[in-house]
Amino acid sequence: MTGNRIAAMLQRTVLAAAKILAAAGVCMLAIWAWMVFVPDCRYAEVEWTNQGRILPRSAVCARDLDVRAIRKDGRDCLELYALKDGLPIGEHCAGPGAH
């Protein structure tokens, strides 16, 4: 009888380990599928300019943009620009009298 108990316990242990590995595999597959099929930049509206100009998020993807300091109308501003062509996308300037 002792041998049958040990065999049954070993069988339950192996079955539990197999279930855990299967669940981990399904989770890893789901994460992989999400990373492959979901675009980096989802389409939504984003306002970056504080001037009412709405940009689609597909045009505002962090890996394609950078920010540079500029001076406009005597104020220090930050300009968001596209890395591919250097053209400005938007700007953010401090209010009048701000330092």
Summarize this, please?
By secondary structure, this protein is α+β, with helices and mostly antiparallel strands. Helices cover 36% and strands 28% of the residues.
* Largest sheet features: 3 strands, antiparallel
Tell me the radius of gyration.
28 Å
Discrete helix count? 1
Strand order of the largest sheet: 3-4-5
Strands, count: 5
Give the uncertain stretches in residue-range form: 42-47
- The structural class is alpha+beta
Mean pLDDT: 76
Distance linking N and C termini? 85 Å
Shape, per Cα inertia axes: rod-shaped
Strand fraction equals 25-35%
Count of separate structural domains: 2
How much helical structure, as a percent, in the residues? 25-40%
Element-by-element helix/strand order: HEEEEE
Oligomer: single chain
Give the arrangement of secondary structure elements:
Elements lengths: L1 H36 L7 E3 L6 E3 L8 E8 L2 E8 L5 E6 L6
Antiparallel strand pairs: 1-2, 3-4, 4-5
What does the model show?
- By secondary structure, the chain is α+β, with helices and mostly antiparallel strands.
- The protein folds into two domains: 38 residues; 49 residues, no CATH class.
- It is 36% helix and 28% strand.
- It has a three-stranded antiparallel sheet, with no helix packed on it. Strands 1-2 form a two-stranded antiparallel sheet.
- β4 and β5 form a beta hairpin.
